[in-house]
Write a structure and sequence with these properties.
The protein is α+β, with helices and mostly antiparallel strands and about 220 residues long. The strands form three sheets. A four-stranded antiparallel β-sheet has the order 2-3-1-4, with helices on one face. The chain has a two-stranded antiparallel sheet with strand order 5-6. The C terminus is likely disordered.
Amino acid sequence: MRYRKTVIGLTVGIFVFSIFLFSAVPQQFFPPSGRLELMVDMKLEEGASLTATQAKALRLEVMLGENDMIENYVGYMGSGSPRFYLSLDQKLPAASVAQFVVLTRNVDDREQVRDWLMETLDREFPAVRTRVSRLENGPPVGYPIQLRISGEHIPRCVNWLGVSLRKCATTAHCQRAPGLGGAQQGRAVNHRSGPGAYAWHYHFRFVYRVASLGFWRGGQPVP
């Protein structure tokens, strides 16, 4: 080979140049989805009734019907949409959950409707945890940032949750930090039997567990 050094130098130069070109490659494994649907999630406080969820969802339904860029929409109260798309992040049934599938005419309208929905939901439903998301390619991931705090001392956990959310709200890379709607509160179940009155206090997350197991007296289930 007459030009060994030239060939080796060009090979090494092209290799190094290709490494620098990797910085211009988008850091996303799956390409953006071109689907025209938007998923609108509404989550009220834990323990909210289906009637309260329906009232919020009907308010949003009226606003969706007044937007000309929306082709059509369908809403679900008490659960999420059935799986019509493989990567759909399905919602578990709950009385405090509502979800809308909003269809737009084109990608430009989709982005404008998304911006309008995010602004409207923040303004009209400040006490509701809301989210407007596209149908992305790839497996569902839920929220990009998910934080779970657990412990025996509930007030201390709620305090740390508030500190974390305020930190997220003041971070430039965190766009939408939900409020303290998920903070769990105590509940009381009053049961009267015979001449005496008894008050049983439970944390609300145990009420369903206790009620589903049933009440027992003297080793026998109470009908």
